[in-house]
C-alpha cells in the first residue's frame, strides 16, 4: 500500500475554493486574532464576568480551569491575561513545563525583570535598596532554602505595584512528578499568595482532571482558598458547526451558499462523535479528512467519505505501512520496546537517537495524523485498535 505517498503528497484545495487547510493549527498559540474563530461557551462568559468583577470593584479572585488535553484551557488563561493587559495591568503567564519548583518560581519572578540593558540600572538599584534579588536568589538556590511564605509575600508586593494584575499557571499537572516535600512547599506558597493577594488581582491555574483531583486530596487548604472552579465541557454539535464555519471562512476564496462546504452536516456530525467533543481531536480529524479528500477530489465530503478515509487498518502490517517512512521508526520503538506505550518522548528520542525536540515534533505530527494518541501526562501510545493487534500476536 502506498501509504507514504498517499499521506504526504501536497493536496490542492482549489477544488473546494479554499486557499489552504484551515484546521492545521490545533493550538491557539499559532493563530493570530484567535478571538475571530473562537467558539464561545458558557465558561467564556463566566470568565469575562470574573475579570469585570476584579476590575470594577478592585477585588481579588482565585480560580481553576479544569479539562482534558485539547479542551481550550490555555486559550482561556491567555484571554484573561489579554484582558488584564488591555487595562494597563501586569499579567504573568507561565507554562509549567517541569516539576522543579525552583525553576517554576524563577519563571514567575522573571516576568518582573525589564529588558536587559548595558547598565541594568533597575536591577542594581533594586538590589541595593531592597536586597530583593539577593533574598530571592538565596531562597531559590535550593529546596532547603525555599521559604514559601516569604516568596509569596514578595510576589504579592511586586504585583501590588500594578493597579491590575494576574498570575496564571498553565499545565499545572506537570508538577505532579515533584517530590512530596517540594509539592508541599510550592502549594503552600500559592496558598499564602492567595490569602494575601493585592487588590485588583487574579490568580488562576489550569490542569487536567486527574492531576486536579490528586492535588485536591493532597492540599485541601489550598483548594479551600479558590473562589471558583471552571470545568470545561465537550463541544456540542452546534458548536462544532460554528467552529467549522469560522475556520473555513478564513481560507475561502470562492463564494458559496453553504458555509460548511465542502463538508456535509452528516460528515461533521460523524467527526463530532468520533472526536468525543474534544476541540483538539475534532480539529485533527477535520484536518486529516480535508487533506485526504482534496487529494482524491471527493466532492462533497459526506459521512461516507469520512468513513472511507478514517477506516481502520485490518492488521498491524497495514497500520505500519500507512505511516510515513521517516516517522515509522518512532512507532516501531513504541510497539517493540514499550508494548504500544504509553511512553514519554524523551525515552523514544533516546532509542531512535534523535534530539528530544525532533522526536516531540514528529510524535505530535503522528497524533495529528491519527497514528498515535496522547494521554493526560503528555505520553504517547498506539490507538486501541493497534493494541488489539499486539494482544492477538502474543
Summarize the structure.
The protein is α/β, with parallel strands linked by helices and 394 residues long.
Distance between the ends = 25 Å
Structural class by helix and strand composition? alpha/beta
Q: What share of residues is helical?
A: 40-55%
What does the largest sheet look like?
A: 5 strands, parallel
Radius of gyration: 24 Å
Total count of domains: 3
Please, what is the CATH homologous superfamily of the largest domain?
Answer: P-loop containing nucleotide triphosphate hydrolases
Question: According to CATH, what is the topology of the largest domain?
Answer: Rossmann fold
**What is the CATH top level name of the largest domain?**
Alpha Beta
- Taken from the alpha-carbon principal axes, the silhouette is globular
Strand/helix succession: HHEHEHHHHEHEHHEHHHHHHHHEEH
Strand content: 5-15%
Mean pLDDT: 87
Uncertain regions: pLDDT < 50 for 5+ in a row? 1-9
In total, the number of strands is: 7
| Count of DSSP H/I helices | 19
Verbal overview:
Helices cover 51% and strands 9% of the residues. With 394 residues, it is α/β, with parallel strands linked by helices. It has three domains: 3-27 and 235-309, Helicase, Ruva Protein, domain 3, CATH 1.10.8; 42-231, P-loop containing nucleotide triphosphate hydrolases (Rossmann fold, 3-Layer(aba) Sandwich), CATH 3.40.50.300; 316-392, Arc Repressor Mutant, subunit A. It has a five-stranded parallel β-sheet with strand order 2-3-4-1-5, with helices on both faces. It has a two-stranded antiparallel sheet with strand order 6-7. β3 (165-170), α8 and β4 (201-207) form a beta-alpha-beta unit.
Amino acid at each position: 500500500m502506498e501509504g507514504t505517498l498517499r499521506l504526504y503528497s501536497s493536496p490542492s484545495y482549489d477544488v473546494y475554493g479554499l486557499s489552504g487547510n484551515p484546521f492545521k493549527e490545533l493550538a491557539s498559540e499559532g493563530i493570530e486574532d484567535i478571538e475571530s474563530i473562537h467558539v464561545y461557551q458558557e465558561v467564556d462568559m463566566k470568565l469575562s464576568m470574573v475579570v469585570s468583577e476584579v476590575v470594577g470593584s478592585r477585588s481579588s479572585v482565585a480560580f481553576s480551569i479544569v479539562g482534558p488535553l485539547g479542551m481550550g484551557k490555555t486559550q482561556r488563561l491567555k484571554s484573561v491575561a489579554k484582558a488584564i493587559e488591555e487595562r494597563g495591568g501586569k499579567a504573568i503567564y507561565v507554562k509549567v513545563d517541569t516539576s522543579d519548583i525552583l525553576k517554576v518560581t524563577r519563571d514567575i519572578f522573571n516576568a518582573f525583570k525589564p529588558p536587559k540593558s548595558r547598565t541594568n540600572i533597575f536591577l542594581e538599584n533594586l538590589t541595593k535598596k531592597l536586597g530583593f534579588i539577593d533574598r530571592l536568589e538565596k531562597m531559590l538556590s535550593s529546596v532547603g532554602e525555599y521559604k514559601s511564605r516569604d516568596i509569596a509575600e514578595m510576589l504579592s508586593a511586586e504585583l501590588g505595584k500594578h493597579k491590575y494584575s494576574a498570575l496564571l499557571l498553565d499545565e499545572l499537572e506537570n508538577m505532579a512528578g515533584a517530590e512530596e516535600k517540594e509539592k508541599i512547599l510550592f502549594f503552600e506558597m500559592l496558598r499564602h499568595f492567595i490569602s494575601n493577594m493585592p487588590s485588583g488581582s487574579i490568580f488562576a491555574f489550569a490542569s487536567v482532571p486527574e492531576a486536579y483531583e490528586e492535588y485536591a486530596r493532597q492540599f485541601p487548604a489550598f483548594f479551600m482558598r479558590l473562589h471558583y472552579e471552571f470545568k470545561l465541557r465537550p463541544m456540542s454539535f452546534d458548536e462544532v458547526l460554528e467552529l467549522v464555519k469560522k475556520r473555513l471562512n478564513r481560507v475561502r476564496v470562492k463564494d458559496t451558499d453553504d458555509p460548511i462546504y465542502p463538508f456535509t452536516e452528516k460528515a461533521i456530525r460523524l467527526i463530532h462523535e468520533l472526536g468525543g467533543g474534544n476541540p483538539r481531536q475534532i480539529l485533527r480529524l477535520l484536518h486529516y479528512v480535508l487533506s485526504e479528500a482534496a487529494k482524491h477530489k471527493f466532492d462533497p465530503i459526506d459521512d461516507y467519505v469520512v468513513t472511507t478515509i478514517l477506516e481502520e487498518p485490518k492488521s498491524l502490517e497495514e497500520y505500519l505501512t500507512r505511516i510515513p517512512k521517516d516517522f515509522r521508526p518512532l512507532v516501531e520503538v513504541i510497539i517493540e520496546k514499550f508494548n504500544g506505550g504509553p511512553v514519554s518522548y524523551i525515552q523514544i528520542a533516546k532509542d531512535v537517537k534523535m534530539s528530544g525536540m525532533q522526536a516531540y515534533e514528529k510524535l505530535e505530527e503522528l497524533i495529528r495524523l491519527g497514528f498515535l494518541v496522547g494521554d493526560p501526562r503528555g505520553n504517547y501510545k498506539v490507538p486501541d485498535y493497534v493494541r488489539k493487534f499486539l494482544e492477538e500476536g502474543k
